[in-house]
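Support request, please re-run this one:
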Amino acid sequence: MHSAGSARRAIRATGFASLVLLLAGRARAQQAQPPVAGGEAPRPAASCAEAAAQLDRRLAAHRFFSQIAYAKDESHPSLVFLVQKPAKPRANYEASVVAMLGPWLDELRRVFEERVVQPLALVRRADWPCTAVCVLLSPGDYYNYSRTIDVPTSISGSAHFDHVLRLTTGFVDELGREPAHRRRFPLLREHVRALLAAYATAPPMAQTPLWVEEGLASYLAFHIGIPPVSLQKREIDPRAFDELWDLVHDEGSRSLYLLHFEELAAIGSWSEIGPALAPRFAQSRAKLDLGKAWRLFDVQAQLWTHFLLDSQGAKHRSAHLAFVKSVLAGRGARDDLRAAFAGSDLRALEVEFHGWALASFLALHPGNTAGFDPAIDLFPAAAFEEVPTPVLPALEKELATLAPRADDLEARLGLALRRASSGAFESAANELDEIAREAAGGALAPRCERELARLRAFLRLRDAHLRGLVASGGKLAFEYEGKKVLSKVKRYAAGQLELEDNRAGLRSISAEELDAAELARSMEKPLLETEDGWVRWLPYALAGDERIFKLLRDASGESAALRDDAQSAYPAALALGDAADALAGLSSAGVPRNPTSAKIALDRIRRLLAHRELALVSPRLGLLKRLAGAAFEASIDESRLQDALGGKLETLGEGRVRVTYEFDDPLEALDWIPDERRFAWWRKGIELRHPESESGFVPREGALQGSGSATLRWAVELEHPIVASYTVRYDQMSENGPEPGRFMVAVCDSGKESYVGCSDFGWIHVMDAAGGTFGVDKDLGAFSYVPGEDYQIELRVEDGVATSHVDGEARARVDCPGWKSGGVLFAAYTDLPLQLKRLVLEGKLSSAGMGKLKRRCAERELAKLGF
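Re-run finished. Output below.
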């Protein structure tokens, strides 16, 4: 038998690796349901009491549970607690464990029902009327239990759900170094598996996609907060973003461990992950790290679930939930996945996912400038069009729809409580009085009456306290405009205090401007013993001050009800009120026109994004995104244009700019948009041996390097005079090796095959697709070049003439009177690897180009916001 101390060290130091070895050494088939310990097959239980009795019988035959003593508690609905008894009895130990974990498991069940059961119209299995949780004493006891686990259900080394016993088992880690929410998380996550099983119509051990259960379990169970109501907020583990960021930025690991969506969905158990990745490792001759593979699978499952359920206004939620329902019914094959996401391009969905993950990571780590473009780095063969975010003229009119509806009494109640939390008790009480009249006879009426009674009681208590200061000559201490003020109160009437002379020179102040919590703290005992004394704690409750739970731990009556509402009702109501306040402010302010109004609007939008899951907010996310785009554009001036580009931007005066690409930063690739539809005629007569699937150019080691077929269009447009200067080099040729092909830099591109191009080493051609003309310098002589050497090339368009130079010597001159502005292109069609080095672009920013830069700035800022 291991001691608790030695086992604790073992679990913390090597728990994950041990778990990997455990599964690797117990390669048992999961398709068939294993026998129940003791030979008893589960029989239908009509009630929790019967289910608990059946569990007792099974545990009596279990090789671990039969050796321990435990207490049973059935005080929570649909939940049976088993708590291991200490060898040396401790007063109320078992009851304290239930009191500690029971509210969390109750709240988790409510969240599960709201998020899964109700949307899918699921019906609980008649033979699974309740779930059971066993809490062991220590890590050592859990280690001894873990030795009996045949097939782990997750990568957690501290909790496990047993499908056969129908039991979630964990332990109390009182000495853990992790924060409390991380110590709770494994048990809660495993309990989500139990809840899923209780509603599944498939056999408990049926082979279904692992990522669905793993992702949902983490999605519902991860939280950051002290009260159980924090489970209502869908927090994402920031460590998951860190892990994915590190993976996609490590090219070697990415090719080995990053799973495409359909690959992720095809894995049915932890034991399948190694075999699924094995072919990749066989090709690379690298060694598979099974622990790393499991951990990264878990990360990808978590983040995919959050992305599908909540990102982009939850546009993928219905498809994901449809797939979850098929999984719970015992299906979940690739055809089921495609059917659920019918109409969606799964590869495009992957690009969306990685773009969302990138933006979310940068929002957490705003100082990090490294990045990647999913379309280029992960899916180089895909072409993606630039989608601008214009400010539509109708936006101003649409803002009226942002404001909460007048008949949304719940939002108005939350707004009134929010006002009270800021000290405006009088106006909050007036608003609540009106809401209570409108809600009379409805479901919200009792709640309105209760809150109105509290506000009125606090106003009576506050006024009695302030009148007492006038009568006694006592001093009032408060903070005003950042300064501490201490003054006697001459008079108090109609909510206004008249002050005696004080150092701040303040003559009067409204009671609403005082910090209500500070005021409550200064109230004297005789006042607190009056009928309204209990309401002293209302400002604490509205402010979310957790001291109220300790101070009112043993309270009863009104105080106890206030404490309970502080935990279960106020957080959600205040969040709704905050959202209502921000929406009303945006609706009345109009479209931002300057940096000041833009900042106010963006601050309100950030508040709303913190509540994006609310029914009041989620339908408005599309309009909020457009408004945020308008605000960002209004806040961007010339000094911030650099933020729009990965290249280095310099302003030269008179609207001209110079942009330099050293090709040593992955962010530079974001400025170049693939467009493989172009130049079909240009490729005629040359057949590449290079597979199209392996074509591509990426910035690396100071050059845009690659081979094959590629067309990249710069994100901005310039007006003449335009200069493009760059260095090129073909790799050295080997005997029977690939031949050089073609490459080109073009300016004044219309996007429809009209441009001025410098092809290869100085050949200029002017293309007019509309007029059918193709101008070239007919007198241009041949040019000899040597693979392996650098050549400096310049293309200039000025005053209706295009010229080229190579290594400082003039090469070509072609008239182009109609070509004055447009985009910039780089195109290549070559088997021999080519390097484009230090590209410098100069020109005047057109109004369209300036607008595009502002939109790109706005789009990057929108991505950081999580849109």
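The longest helix spans residues 93-120. The chain is about 40% helix and 20% strand.
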